[in-house]
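User: I'm writing a tutorial on reading structure tokens. Could you give me a worked example: one chain, its sequence, then its tokens, then a sentence or two explaining what the tokens reveal?
Assistant: Sure. Here is the example chain.
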Amino acid sequence: MPRSYVNEARKHVGPKRQRIRPVIERLAAEHPDAAIALRFRTPLELLVSVMLSAQTTDVNVNRVTPRLFEKYRAPADYLAVPQEELERDIFATGFYHQKARSLRGTMQMLLEEFDGEVPATLTELVRLPGVGRKTANVVAAELGHPDGIVVDTHVRRLSQRLGFTKQEDPEKIERDLMKLVPRKDWGRFPHLLIWHGRRVCDARRPRCEDCVVNDLCPSSRV
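And here are its predicted structure tokens:
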């Protein structure tokens, strides 16, 4: 179980429903460049990038994908080579055996059930081999059809520190956030927390003195 930040939310700073909008507005002003860090040009490249990002960094994935996407341009390309060759091509992203199997299974389903196109809805995306809810949420949001809220380590940590959830499980955290965050913000909300988590609200040493929402945060140290 990863470290919990629930107990850090000790101050009384007002009901979470009154705080959510100003938190979103301030973070949006502070991080106007908050967006997905993965680099892609097409829905297929997006899907592959997100699948490869499991258990590694976006920076690492971005090192691998330029050459990968020159070689593999369509779903059939991933099936036209032996699995061992695909594994070598994605080796640097880690867990390459499982990722290669998932990619090939996904490409097969795309060809058989979706005419080779990447579906845009969460319901369809989670049917793809190796595509869990988090991956599906990322892809759906980037394609303009957010039907949930992405919960990664940053979103989990900041949501707990901000007192928006007391849950530990990502799916339960997501349910709490979906009840709280306006639907129109489901797509950008995770990006705002992720970038704020990277730049200010560090896991070990949060820079509360530099935080634009410290007066709205029950975990603030200032």
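What the tokens reveal: The two ends are 29 Å apart (CA to CA). Residues 31 and 38 are 17 Å apart (CA to CA).
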